[in-house]
Every structure is written in C-alpha cells, then in structure tokens.
Amino acid sequence: MKAYEVADRFWDAKPCRLGERDRVVVEGSVVTYLLWGHRIAVWNRDEDTLDISDCGWRTWLTKDRLNNIIRKVGLGIYSDRGRWYINNATMSYYWEGKHKIYIGTGRIKPANPRVWRPEISEKLIRYYEKAREAIEAKRRTLITRTLDGTVYAFVGNNYGRRRWVVVIKTHSPEFEVWEGWCSITTVYSAFMRSDACAFLTQKPRKQFKDGKAEDVLSTLRAMGFKADDLPKGLASSLAVAKLLDG
Q: Are 44 and 30 in contact (CB under 8 A)?
C-alpha cells in the first residue's frame, strides 16, 4: 500500500495501517489519520468538518501526508522561503499549525490571507522566469563534479509547487540514487547556481534500494530522458553497474 492509498482509505472511513508510521482509525462518525501516533487529521462526518494539524512537526513527511488528505477537498499546502501556506484554487493563507475545514463550503478557519508586496512579487516573477529558462536551457539536467565523484540531477514536470527530481551521485563503479518531490524554490535555486550538489543537502526522500541501474534508467525514461541523451560519464557508470547487476 502507498501513502496516498492510506489517504483514500481515510476518506472511505476504512481502518488501515501502513507499517508503524501511518494509521487510519474509525470511531463511530469520527475518522482519524495518525502519523507516528500524532493526530494530523480528524474528519467528523456528522459535522462535515476536517481538523488538520502538523502536531508541531513541520516536516516534509507531515506536509506530504496532509496534502494527500486535503487534496480531496481542493486544498493544498506548500512552502515558500521556509514558510508554510495553505491554499485553495483562488487564495493562499498563512499556515497556523492547525486549521478547521468546513467541507461543504470549503471555508478554512483560521484564514489569514497571504500578503503579497508588489515590488517583491515582480522580482520573484522575473527570477522564476529566468530559472525556468535555465532549466530548459540545461535540458532539465545538472552536472557537478565533486572531490569523490560526480553529482547528476534530473528534474521532471511541475506538480503544483513541486517538481519530481532524481539525483545520482557516482563514485565509479558504485553510485547512489535518490528520487522524490522537491520544492520549486529548491530546484530553481540549484539551476540558477548550476549546482547539482544543492540537492544533496535537501535530498528527495526516497532512496533507490540497492541502486539497481535498470530501475534508474526506467525512472529516467518515465521522466522523458532517453538513454542516448544521458551524459557520457553517467551512461558509462550505469552500463558498468548494469553488467555487475547481471
């Protein structure tokens, strides 16, 4: 079972568990999502309300689980320059740590609208435009050599305010691979500085088990990268690893 499937069970009011971390509990008309034992979401079906909270853990994992839950009611949580916001189709609000959502009307409480300063917004727009141009100019790929190898970063398409990223660090013939969602600001900053190593300090959360070369190639193909287009150094490392895997 995947994490998003646990969220589906939550909305189906069906008890379930994903390892020791995620759990859905149903008690009468109240459905609770527990993350490491913390009540991050409580759906009261009689009152048609959803209470969500980060429970003091403002982490990528908490945000991911909350997003899996609240996307069903047209909401999302994103971070910008270290601060969290909750948004619907038309408005962004400051994340206050916990919110009550009135499902029928879509009303959020508390709802403190995000304030945009025009001069800052214009600078950000220009910065984002340059960053997007840099990503396409580099064909969605960054390469940075380090003292003990080379770091390759590949980015996929946008999903909200995130992009799917695969990061590969080679130190031939071995290599390490991570994949997952990174915030747009992290991706933009890395490409503007032409620094793939930026992803090593904020690694995508899933690491390929055993670093199988065929799994890496399959993932990159799914992101639109052809084997013939891969940097020669990486292609060589994967080819050697593929032989060793066999």
A: yes
pLDDT (tens digit per residue) in 92-130 = 999 999 999 999 988 999 999 988 766 666 777 788 788
**Phi and psi, residue 221, nearest 5°:** -60, -40
Q: What are 230's two structure tokens?
A: 């891969």
Give tens-digit pLDDT for 29-65: 999 999 999 999 999 999 999 999 999 999 999 999 9
CB atoms within 10 A of CB 211: 16
Q: What is the chain's Cα-based Rg?
A: 21
Closest CA to 59 of 45, 76, 44, 77: 77
Type of residue numbered 26: V
Q: Exposed/middle/buried for 181, CB within 10 Å: 0-12, 13-18, 19+?
A: buried
Compute the C-alpha angle 188/189/192, nearest 5°.
85
- Please give the torsion angle defined by the CA atoms of residues 37, 42, 45 and 50, in that order, rounded to the nearest 10 degrees: -160
